[in-house]
Specification:
- This protein is mainly β and 99 residues long.
- It has one domain.
- The chain is 0% helix and 37% strand.
- The chain has no helices and nine strands.
- A five-stranded antiparallel beta sheet has the order 1-7-5-9-3, with no helix packed on it. Strands 2-6 form a two-stranded antiparallel sheet. Strands 4-8 form a two-stranded antiparallel sheet.
- It starts with 7 loop residues before the first strand and ends with a strand.
Length: 99
């Protein structure tokens, strides 16, 4: 990934019913709060892909995404910057499916 590549975020389309995301022991859940301009940076997330859910979802064998949940697939920059998803000063859940 080129060092100056901008972060990317794709919002999930509207859903009619819930979606279950299985969580394995290798997966990581992080709870972070983007600042007042929607930025979030963590060097440990450098270059990773993740699923961002508005609000806090407790870790379990699966996470249920309801039709009203706002969800994005994101790619962090090599410096660990998350693209803005329009959530400010509010906790988000980030799921990393790791190998």
């Amino acid at each position: 990934m080129p060092p100056n590549r901008p972060p990317s975020a794709r919002k999930w389309p509207d859903r009619i019913g819930p979606i279950k995301i299985p969580i394995s022991e290798n997966d990581t859940l992080e709870y972070k709060t983007p600042n007042n301009v929607g930025q979030l940076q963590a060097a440990s997330f450098s270059g990773k892909n993740g699923i961002v859910i508005r609000g806090k979802k407790e870790k379990a064998d699966e996470i249920i995404i309801s039709p009203s949940d706002e969800v994005w697939t994101v790619t962090f920059t090599p410096r660990g910057v998350m693209p803005s998803v329009g959530v400010y000063n509010e906790i988000v859940t980030i799921i990393f499916h790791l190998q």
